[in-house]
Structures are given as structure tokens and as C-alpha cells.
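Q: I have 135 residues here and want to know how they pack in 3D. Can you give me a structure?
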Amino acid sequence: LLQGAANAPEQAREVSAMAASISGLPSRRWNVALLKAHAALFAGDRKSAVEQARHALELMSVQRDALNGPANMVAAAIVLAWAGESDESVQLLRRVINLPNDFFGWALVRDPLLAVPLAGNPAFEALKREVDPPN
């Protein structure tokens, strides 16, 4: 019934070692930094939110991960926008839009998570006109 039960402790150690290895990957550390950024933002600690968002970008930007990097940059841009760092947020969005990826610029500038905190920012308004011109 319990075939391989004799190997269970060894297999458990292997799985534990793999889990420890995976938890140290930049993608996992990025998730933790972004969660801390959101927690700080929700707690009203804008300075810490900005620090954690910038740290997340260091861990997992497009330079480190071409597939997930653009989405990570957008996630950090959202935190930065709500933390009051609108110019830095717009710079990140512009970089994402200029990458060869699946993000549509018009969708980013219409996303309420970005459009609300960045409304009225001249750089954001210019970016909106570039990627989502009026009909």
C-alpha cells in the first residue's frame, strides 16, 4: 500500500530543499516586495510603498525577465502612481509601451488603476494622446 514509504524522509528533504531554492528566486522576492509595497500603500506609508516598488523593479524588471518584466513594471507603476510618484509611474508606462510586448498602450492609459491617480499629470495626458488619440 505505501510503496516508497521508506524513501519518504529523503523525498521530503528534497522537496524542502527545492522549496527553499525556489523561495530565493528573484520572482519570489519580487512578489514579496510588491506585497510589501501594497501593504505600505494601504497603511498610508507612501515612502515605504515607493521604496518597496522600486526594490521590486530592481528584482524583476524587463532586463531580468523579458516575459514577465513588462507586467511587473506595470504593477510597480500602479503603486508608484497611487503613492504620488506620478512622473516616475508615467516613465515606467512609457517604457512598457515602447517594448515589443502584448500590452496595448490604449488599454494601459484607460485602466482606472492608472488613469485615476495619474489624471491631470501632463506627461500622462501626453502619453494618452499618443496611444489613444481622440476619435
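Q: Anything worth noting?
A: Residues 26-42 form the longest helix (17 residues). Residues 106 and 131 are 5 Å apart (CA to CA).
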